[in-house]
Request: fold
Amino acid sequence: MDPPTLDTEVSGMTQKRLAALFGTVLVAFSVVMGRLYLLAQNQEYAQTAQAQTVTTLTLENSRGNLYDCNGTAITGYGQQYYALSIPGESSYAELFQYVPYSEQAYLYEKRNALSPFLVQVDRDLTDQGIYTYSVPNRYCPVPLAEHLIGYLNGDGSGVAGLELAFDELLSSGQSTREIQCVTTAQGSLLAGSEPQLLESQAEGQGVMLTLDTATQRVCEAIAQQSMVTGCILVLDVKTAKVRASVSVPEFDPNNIQASLQDENSPFLNRVLCQYNVGSVFKPVLAAAALERGIGWYSMECEGVITISDHDYHCALDRAHGLMNIRGALEKSCNCFFIDLGMQLGGARIAELARKFGFGQTVYLAGGLKSAEGVVPEEETLEDLGQLANFSFGQGQLMAAPIQLAAAYNTLAAGGVYRSPGFLEAVIDEDSGEVVRNLYQPETRKVVSESTAATLCDMLAGVVNEGIGVQAAPQNGTAAGKTGTAQTAVFDEEGREEMNYWFAGFYPVEDPLYTIVVLQDGTPEPGTSSATVFAQVCDGLFWLQNEETRARILHQQEKLEEEQAKSAADS
Reply:
């Protein structure tokens, strides 16, 4: 036998290595096949293999609500429903008939989705075997006091009004609601599993307002019928709490985009904005004269008065003849009050105006507040022309409707000023108990009770016998003053856009309500502000009847339900 060569030795070693490698591969293959066999035999492993993911869907978080003075919720009204659409289970065909028109395109786009999704529906579909979840509507289908309340952005955060001012408080008690679905690679629910609703609830707080829902609804209805632009305010005389705060035109907080292009600025809360005042300021001069002891003052009105070489006219250049304070208020005689202003002096008038609340910001919460308004400085009023304009509510004088309401409320309340209140308290939403009182009015004596009583009687004469006869309600008595303020703004036809006011209280004998009506920026309103005032008085009279009050609330609820259904059907 020949001795082994080097090539023979190498060949032997290769064969051994190949045999070892083959053995290793064989063992590995056996292990893999064994694991596959175990997987095939074990149902739990089989399900795990099928389950590719966990889909988590988030429902809209709840938010603390706003309430009226009676504890009636004015946000979080009713429910809206969302159905779970599951791929591969004919969800598209099942859900289409229940999806609002505005959401049908979304459902169509998602029909071939590879994971479950939520779509809005018009009812609870649980009894039809469809997973349905409810979330509260933030706003009524028929908006209530939307300028005061404000609105939310797409993320559910407040961006205007009280929603913004109390955003942190209202969002602090938000509950978190998530739906978890175990799904296959195709997006269908894993066999034997159901969606899981996971909730975490925090202690929520809400805010009670001074508004009364029935009063607010009545005033909103009157404004919609009789006004194009403007506002209506109703205050409780004894407390200065605001029972109604209406600004027109309105906007829909459920559809902000629709109002963005409106030239009448529907987002403007006219209750808090400042305007030229006009003759509704004249009772301040009358009060100053009574407090100084010259309530007897009189003068001969010839229809025009000259101050510093400038002629000032009464309306239509009408000569009123011999005028005292009562007659001058009833006829709204500019000449009389200009002359009276010269006798009183600008400093005295301006000081009393500030005590009545002119030039004083009304604060609500956070950054929400009224305009400060303008009361001319004493140095300015040393100019007799400026003083003449100021004496009948023109010139630099500016005020917000809420400030004017506070001034007239002072007269109705016996000479005591109280800062107007929109907010009652922070409440615990679970128990309804007060957490923190928000009603903290500033109070001060402005004029004597006798001066206030005399002026109330004079302002009753304005309605009964004077220029304000259109303000007389069908039921009961009223007192107040008209005002037409120039703005120096003209429309395309060259007509000056005026501010038309009526401010007063109802009833005269024992005033319950102070009411201010403003129609701004119009050459001439279709319905006078005095007439609107009378309509509000009659509305308040009807609300004193509990049956009428209950019927109004029921009608509003029914209307809201019908509109919600109509919106869903459309």
